[in-house]
Amino acid sequence: MTAMAAEPTPPPSLRERKKTKTRAAIRKATYRIAADEGWDAATLERIAEAAEVSPSTVVRYFPVREDIVLTDENDALMEAALRARPAGEEPLESLRAVVLEAVRAAFAEEPEAARLRARLMVEIPSVRARLTETTAATGRRLARAVAERTGRAADDLEVRIFTAAALGALREAAVYWAERDRADDLPALLNRTVDTLRSGLTTPPGRP
């Protein structure tokens, strides 16, 4: 019996392409102002002027200013990638693969933006605080895929704990990397993080 070919994904509509272009313009303007003049200079009005849109448009796309540097379209891609991981793969290994791929893609596509985001996480308290909230939102989205892969309900307590713990630990690794002037290899730190989650901590020999 011949397997049916999957239906091709329809191309984005003109409206969706315009929305993506506008979001990209707002991000680019924000990155430029923040990199050249600092985060305080990246006001709503300055961002709107640089992106050639109205302030209301900026707010419509990014109700919270910090989200301009913290959010992107990766959540949907990560959710799809998680669902596409090999059947039977341990959930922690699936998350490792998906997060590492997202990080590598971000640095390949927009290395300067990724570094600026890391610097703002350390220097700007509001960005650091918002990072916690956006990580939680990402966790709720990925928990759906984890639940499906493990045969559990999306609101299963163990699924929520597992996903939140894993993403929280990976976020902390990113902060650790940023605090140390981004000198370490971030993917290596993320791998260490997953290994620590898997094995836990042990007391050194001879220590009471």
UniProtKB/TrEMBL annotation:
Gene3D superfamilies: Homeodomain-like (1.10.10.60), Tetracycline Repressor, domain 2 (1.10.357.10). PROSITE patterns: HTH_TETR_2 (PS50977). The keyword Oxidoreductase does not apply. Keywords: DNA-binding, Transcription, Transcription regulation. Residues 43-62 bind DNA. Residues 1-21 are annotated as: Disordered. The keyword Cytoplasm does not apply. Residues 20-80 form the HTH tetR-type domain. This is TetR family transcriptional regulator. It comes from Streptomyces wedmorensis. The lineage of its organism: Bacteria, Bacillati, Actinomycetota, Actinomycetes, Kitasatosporales.
